[in-house]
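Z., the sequence and structure:
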Amino acid sequence: MKGKRLTVGIIGGMGPAATALLFERIILATPARRDQDHLHIIVDNDPTVPDRTAAITGNGPSPLDALVKSARLLESAGAEVLAMPCMTAHYYINELTGHVKVRLIDAIDELCAEIQRNPAIRTVGVLATDGSRRAGVYDRLSQHCEVVFPDAEFQARFMDAVYGPAGVKTVGPRPETSVTMAELAGRLREQGADAVVAGCTEASVGFQAGSLAVPLLDPVAILASAVVREAWAPGDSPGEAMSRVCAAAHPG
């Protein structure tokens, strides 16, 4: 007798494209053969959550109250496990977890576990927002490998690719953004990175149209696999989940 699958809640809106990407990745990660095999997913796409980078750098209000509101809304709607595609918002994950009774999957923990499963990765390069870097969101990675970040010039280019007039948050993913992301990944490769972490969800979105000369660790794809693992029914086996996620993260 197969067990009951858990209802998934997505704390979204940070930004909307990243939220849609996680939803898509979960669908692709689910070894379903018909509509009825897929997970029940509830999405709260609230784009009014205050900017996380602005808050962490002292230039805006905290998003914690809005995150708690979203998590509780999803919980009250029936969500039994939560996921949050915004990596910068993981700065608040310990506080947020204390406000709900259901499990909130930690995408950074899942990323660390993925690195541990790949002993060939000795150094990772991280493309992350200024807020994530200042908050030390990715400090946990240093327990498993060496971590390198872009220098000031290339970090500024990354932030422009995310927040600028032609950035992912402003106009969505575009081919030129993907080219920029690939160049930034190449720079990290030159700094010794064996793999590059798309440490901002908009980087995951921006990478979709481009090809890389360095392996990509996509926290959105890794989080999607974790969601399927946690929400799938006891007695079932999502054995193809990670391979399908990886294939979806690297189309073509």
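The CA atoms of residues 182 and 212 lie 6 Å apart. The chain has a mean pLDDT of 89.

Let me know what you think.
H.
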